[in-house]
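User:
I study polymers; will you set down one protein's sequence and backbone structure tokens?

Assistant:
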Amino acid sequence: MKSNWSLLILILCFSTGFAQNTKYTSEEKNITSLVDGTLLIPETTNDIPLVIIIQDSGPVDRDGNQNMQKNNCLRFLAEGLIDRGIANFRYDKRIVKLLKKGALKEEDIFFDQFIQDAINIIDYFKNDERFSKIYVIGHGQGSLVGMIAAQGRADGFISIAGAGQEIDDVIVDQLALQAPGLKDNARTAFDDMRVNGFTVNYSPGLASIFRPSLQNFLSDWMQYDPQEEIKKLDMPVMIVNGTKDIQVNLGEPEKLKKARPDAEYVIIENMNHILKEILGDSMENSKSYNEYNRPVIPILFEKIADFILE
């Protein structure tokens, strides 16, 4: 019986699969007590680059999914990269594991914890001799997390749908478009947070943003300016955004490009925030967030592969 259990554990932790054209192995990795993920490795000979995929905001798992949103964007991204001979590691955010344990306390979550998790992952794989280079892909919120964690550690960095401003400025700009009557109050509340570390000066309409349990996290996040952080990367950089992104407008990657003029700059026609091709209207765009089988737009794989393998 003991040997049977050992065999079962081995099967669960190490398996072999096929992408469209590439045979690969899959390994389950435990990086820390709060960070688990999946490593895909192509069965090629030598000189295999590794990409670490860092996810967007919210309780996002390794596949790019969260509660009420199953679109598998990061799983499809990983599979597209493995098909092009690029190993990759994607992981569950620490808050996913805390939620599963019933142990999540929002007031105890800080932005710096996400950065440290990413640093731990990079350091873990730097000791793995199977990989020739390490690249970091940051998606959405993960763009800022990744560009900070990659500094002095990785060989290249790719921002996908990352903000080009500090998070308070991003939110104020979004409110100016979606709820202009709340914009000035939000600006005042964020200014209070910058001075005092917290705020009580916000309208009930902004309670979901400024709830007390979230203020530690926001105050921590606000300390980082993406335009300053991207300048610190001593490595090749690529900045990617899509024309159908309804969460991050094209002004954000333009700010990153201005801060980092030597970066490769890629705007993908009809790609939305979750990396899917949208040929229709805003309703199609919104529906795609919960379409588990809609593929990632193929040109994204080509652009990333060209950047990494050139």
